[in-house]
TrEMBL record, chain A:
Protein name, entry field: ABC transporter permease
Keywords: Amino-acid transport, Cell inner membrane, Cell membrane, Membrane, Transmembrane, Transmembrane helix, Transport
Family the entry assigns: Belongs to the binding-protein-dependent transport system permease family. LivHM subfamily.
Major location (coarse): membrane
Lineage of producing organism: Bacteria, Bacillati, Actinomycetota, Actinomycetes, Kitasatosporales
Any GO BP annotation: D-alanine transmembrane transport
Transmembrane segments annotated in the record for this chain: 12-32, 39-57, 63-85, 97-120, 149-167, 195-216, 236-262, 274-295
UniProtKB/TrEMBL annotation, chain B:
Species, as recorded: Kitasatospora aureofaciens (Streptomyces aureofaciens)
Bilayer topology: Multi-pass membrane protein
Identification of the protein by name: Branched-chain amino acid ABC transporter permease
Region (Disordered): 620-643
Keyword Chaperone among record annotations: no
A Pfam family annotated for this UniProt entry: BPD_transp_2
Annotated transmembrane regions: 12-35, 55-80, 92-111, 123-143, 158-175, 187-208, 229-247, 259-280, 315-335, 341-359, 371-391, 464-482, 513-533, 553-580
A GO molecular function held by the record: branched-chain amino acid transmembrane transporter activity
Amino acid sequence: MHDLPQQLANGLILGALYGLVAIGYTMVYGIVQLINFAHGEIVMVGGFGALTAYLALPGGTTLWLALPLMLIAGILVSTLTAVAAERFAYRPLRNAPRLAPLITAIGLSIFLQQLVFSFYPDAKKARVFPKIPGDPFSLGSVTVQRSDLFLIIAAPLCMLALGWFVTRTRSGRAMQATSQDPDTAKLMGIDTDRIIVMAFAIGAAFAAVAAVAYGLRSGQVDFRMGFILGLKAFTAAVLGGIGNIYGAMLGGLALGLAEALATGYIQHLPGMHLFGGGAWKDVWAFVLLILVLLVRPQGLLGERVADRA
Amino acid sequence: MTTRTETTPVIPLPATAATTLTGLGALAVAASAAMSWTWTSDFPGDLTYYGSPVGLQWLAVAAGVLTLALLLATLGTPGLRWAAPTRSNNAVLYAATGALAVAAYSVTSISTELGGLANLEPGGWVLAGGGLLGVLGALGLPLDRRTHVPLRILDKRLFLLLPAAPVGWIAAHAIPGDKPVAPVMTALSGALAIAAGAVLLLQLGHLANSQLRLGKVDRPLPAPRELPSWVEVLLIVAAFGVGSYAITFGIDTDYGELFIGYLLLIAFMIAALAGSGLLGRLRALTLKYRPVTTGAAFAAAASFPFQTGEQYASVATNILIFATVALGLNIVVGLAGLLDLGYVAFLGVGAYAAALVSGSPASPIHVQLPFWAAVIVGAAVSMVFGVVIGAPTLRLRGDYLAIVTLGFGEIFRITMQNLNGTTGPNVTNGSNGIPRIPELNILGFDFSQTHALGGIQIGRFGNYYLLMLLVTALVVLVFARVGNSRIGRAWIAIREDETAAEAMGINGFRLKLLAFALGACLAGVAGTVQAHVTYTVTPDQYTFADALPPNSAFLLAAVILGGMGTISGPLAGATLLFLIPKKLEFLSDYQLLVFGAALIVLMRVRPEGLIPNRRRQLEFHEADEPAPPAADDDTTALTKAGA
């Protein structure tokens, strides 16, 4: 157990990544009660947007200069994709039976993956993403990769900004009102269509931040990265209580921790020596999802889970 | 919805001129098949001979003859009147358009593949001319049209793509080619151009629609002539014979061009026959003699291996596996309204269970159960997994089930990969899978051997095809019996409105779990057969989305494309979705892309699928119904009070 602090740090960093993606699920769900399956692909598209910006910059640009530009490009691409998807795929189906938008989301997810796979040059394999160069930091027994610094700084900043936006601005309060009761919100003069677009856009912007963080961490982006990431992030959103933005972050951190601990320690449990390590981490995350749904379906911070339709 | 209709031609032509033109065009299309279409045998099928039609030329014959027959039938020619009970000229127009589509496709594919129109022989020109003439003439016939179709304009912002496309093209070419970003920009400008083209085409389509004003117009079917019942039964049998021949032709097409031509022809001919009222007649007959219809359908399906060789029997077996699993999924999705995105994993559970107890040397369990026991094991294990997944999730909103099943599909694959002896206990042999699954031998009937049945040799795949057909029959039986029972009606009630259904005393959770577990169980049964057909089970056969069916995404698509909640829908959808990627190999790179886009478009345009369930269709088009006019105030109030 001597490496416990290290595992905890790994788990928290990974969890921050899940949390950023989970925000996108939770915001959209909180307002239109739709699980946007394609959100994982919005992350992926953002990653490729950032990669494109990196490729467009002159060869010797330092990463400190390139990173903000990559971030802007990533946010631009993913937000545009999400808003277009909302406008042309989801909005026409808003009053359709519930199965229809879910199926559209599946179609959209496959479509975006294949679009990148088929038309982004050399995207058939993973494409190299820059890493922040330099040695890892050491704090006592914990080492942190330099590339993870971006996530450690960006995730809390994003959360603070979102918290401020939702509670302190007019649009943010309109968003809260819409999520509580769309019909009444409309009667109060809130343009709910605009709020829905905004929810998609904010989720997509966070997705792009997560994509850049993912790219920096793993040194690559590929067209399939959104699938498992999206699944994990959804688990995180459910774990924290879907519809609750603080819950998403909390759920992300909890999931990250659980995954790191399971990867590190499950093989030390009696009779489980063959089920540890990286090969099983996705399985444990899934088992956790099932357990949460069984024991506390409303999640850590969630209140209502009843059918509102 | 009341649509005002009129019967007028699109192109004002004298009636005789229009009829003559159409007839001449149809004749020309049919006759061109007897001529040479091109000078070289390089085009697949070798269309160079006079007097001996092959491949695409037979399609032209069929299109021409059918157009002519429908034209004569609508004119009231004695002896042919049965072919067009509604006397609608729209049927003639659809058939003529089908002939034009086949002609246009043949001519373009000949000239693009061989390089230029110069490669057409006189037959090709006659074909193209005949097709055009036929449609022009048919547009001059009095057609059923709506009096007014408003012109729809797309979202104005989309038109920004039109100037953006050339700007993108210029920008992409302004970047020096050695920059790493250059290929990205080229791809992006290409995508812009495609999107702009799509917007333009869509708007042109709306424009054409508002001008042609053709729409589905329901003409009442006149009462059918009284026929003795044995004649009616014979008619059903004949119809299924023709259908079986058409499907066999499609499966047997041996090059992509022929298959595309075939699809075009079939699509237009179905539209034409529906317009002429013939399909309505057939439908009425099949409803009257349900057992005969079911029998005829299965006889037609069972006759397949007797008609073709072993190569196509293998294709047909795989279609049948895919279709059966799709039908099982339809119980879950179509009847109970539960979105299962990892359904293929249950097929995998069944297949793995059967493989483990099959006596394969690679299986760590060294037992060889008889097939019937393996089926029970596969079904039971699948059902257990269904309950384990379903019990926690089905208490919650349906969306949770969707994502949990999506996760389950992925986790199943990962787990099967991990149980390989190094990253986990050795159960499944990891990514190598369980190979050398022994052939089935039921009551001394060895499935690996060729048997002579009724004088016709039936090979290995033929044997498995017939076995799989039994499983299909089982699933159809379960679907039909459960679907019409108290349970089935409860499922439909839950699908429509769970809260209301529970208020009526339905135990929503228990019934949803039943649907989910039943679906899993049927997939497991199909899996046990699949394991023996494919010799080997590997984790990669059971993915969420892949170029080859069956996988979860394609299964769902088969259900939705075909029609949720019906039996024939998923069978037709699965057949199409299996054959299209199989026959059109040049599409394979973009197949999933097209597939994803098609799902999105389908949900917007025709969410009820090709063969819709009546009730389902109404539900999906609730929003299209206009508000009742003010004059009907009394009745509205009444229905509202009644509701």
